[in-house]
Amino acid sequence: MRLAKMAKRIFVLGLDAFDPKLCFEKFKAELPNLSKLMKNSSWGISNSSIPPLSCTAWISFAKGKTPGHSAIQGFTSRKDFAYTDFFVANSTIIEKERLWDILAEQGKKCIVMNVPVTFPPYDVNGIMVSSFLTPNADKEYCYPKEIKQEINEIANGYVIDVKGFKKKPKNVVLKELKGMEEKRFKVAKHFIENKDWEFFIFVTTGTDRIHHAFWADMDETHPDHKADTEFKDAILSYYKFIDEKIGEVASLLGEEDVLLIMSDHGAREMHGFVNVNEFFIKEGYMKMQEYPSEPTLFNETKVDWNNTKVFCTGNYIARIFVNLKGREPQGIVKKEDYEKFRDEIKEKLLTIRDEQGKKMNTKVFKREEVYKGKYVASQPDLIIYFDDLKWGANQMIGFNELFSHNADKGRNSANHYHKGMFLLHNAGLEAGKRSEINLIDLMPTIIRLLDCEVPTAVEGKSLV
């Protein structure tokens, strides 16, 4: 049922990786502010982007389109099909057609705070504070520049991210994650009360980091779980901390304001990594000029490209590229053999069993089956969810075995999951749980609620 009304302002609280099974089920009784909002809000599950990586997901949300409309493949992407030349996701290579760009063009005052892939920041008819992909706090991470001093004074030193959180002592990580978001929420609340805005989006990072660092402590079924862990309730504690902040933010909004709480994707247990390039080497699809003496990043190894047919980039979710003649610099797979070879690789990957020899519930996506847009051709030939993301992908070479339990940045017991959450409050929609939506549906919903025109090229379907 559509009961939409126009909003005076919309505040979007983006909780990166906030998981629906945790917030709506397992922890619900411990989250009084979220539970209270659920009683008179429209809420449920949103299907994330393919792949459900923060970069691709937040871009897809903001554009209202699948990742085929962006040149970005993940946090790092291949540059012009080069083998080892990668670029870090940044705002300069994204067309200015994201949600705040559309609203700014139609005269709305916007505040964009900590949304992934907003560095370097730019004019959005308001304020932009860039995200964890900002190289360091010495860079200009605010627009206008003068806001940086104000932010640092409010927060007593703004924090870009908790660096090295997968290797630091866990008690330090927990303290730093809470400290980081405490500072950010302090700034966000100051902006809510003291700045002129009609659209405000603020995204947390700690809600993602907490799963990666502490899932095995929480999950008694995880192979890395230790019964005597002192961090069993670390994730619950963090969700309760975020719930307190939800209450604080909600209390600052007016009767005509709409509140959207959302995540770009969810989280789930991860039992380890499939070393995909090791699999290709074993199966004879990849050859090395020199096999590394220790686990080494893919782009730092010496691959024999003249005798390599396929390779994997990226971690967590495998991004598979065929070494295609005429596309890659030293491609050897002929164009007329591409489809047959890609199907062969797909079937090979589906045969991989887990460490106990059990069949995996692996999903393999061809880019053209899940994407539209002018950048489809630059996206991976195949995208792999090993055992529905219970196993991550590892692009490193040098393990000399199929499975590993540490990627390039240290311990990690959780993967991203393709189901995120949303809660839309005071939007005139019927209260209660609704059927699943797509992440890209939220962008046109926000635009319509602000009584603005949705671009015709948007693929998402408005909820109002």
From TrEMBL:
The protein's organism comes out as Candidatus Iainarchaeum sp
Task: Give the protein's recorded name.
Answer: Phosphodiesterase
Q: Which Gene3D superfamilies match?
A: Alkaline Phosphatase, subunit A (3.40.720.10)
Output the superkingdom of the source species. Archaea
Q: Name one Pfam family in it.
A: Phosphodiest
Q: Identify the SUPFAM superfamilies for this entry.
A: Alkaline phosphatase-like
Source taxonomy lineage? Archaea, Candidatus Iainarchaeota, Candidatus Iainarchaeia, Candidatus Iainarchaeales, Candidatus Iainarchaeaceae
